[in-house]
Design a protein that fits this description.
Layout (H helix, E strand, L loop, with lengths): L3 H56 L9 H41 L10 H9 L17
Helix pairs in contact: 1-2
Length: 145
């Protein structure tokens, strides 16, 4: 049978493990968010360059905008990378949610007594030990409170 102290240690260990998993998830999500910010910034820069180049070509009377193809491909590549990174971020969230759910289910399968509750064994021990009254050493009479 598990003592109160063992139960508390087990609970602290479980909370630590859940906290550790959530921290790992937050770290991975933060890294992916930083990557997304960078990709979006690069995409916006590409779109800005397209606009500037298109305006410059138009101003010069150029009718062939094929010179912009390289910039179009770069922006398209960034959009693909953004979509892939968003999917990766969602997979990370789902994976960690599943891990945390498994830990919580495992805890539910083996419920433990809370530290405040007395076990049946502890109650029986209390019943067996009679209340001892203090006595005066010289006379053997009970002390007055």
């Amino acid at each position: 049978m598990e003592t109160k102290w063992e139960g508390m240690k087990k609970k602290v260990g479980q909370l630590f493990n859940k906290s550790k998993m959530k921290t790992e998830e937050a770290l991975q999500i933060t890294q992916l968010n930083q990557k997304l910010r960078s990709l979006r910034s690069e995409r916006e820069e590409g779109i800005r360059k397209i606009g500037e180049k298109a305006f410059s070509l138009w101003k010069e009377g150029e009718k062939d905008f094929g010179l912009l193809d390289e910039l179009f491909l770069m922006v398209e590549k960034k959009e693909t990378e953004i979509a892939r990174t968003e999917q990766e971020k969602e997979k990370v969230r789902l994976a960690f949610s599943e891990k945390i759910r498994e830990v919580e289910e495992k805890e539910a399968v083996s419920p433990e007594e809370s530290p405040e509750e007395e076990t049946d064994q502890e109650k029986k021990k209390e019943e067996k030990v009679p209340e001892q009254k203090e006595t005066e050493p010289e006379t053997g009479e009970q002390k007055k409170a």
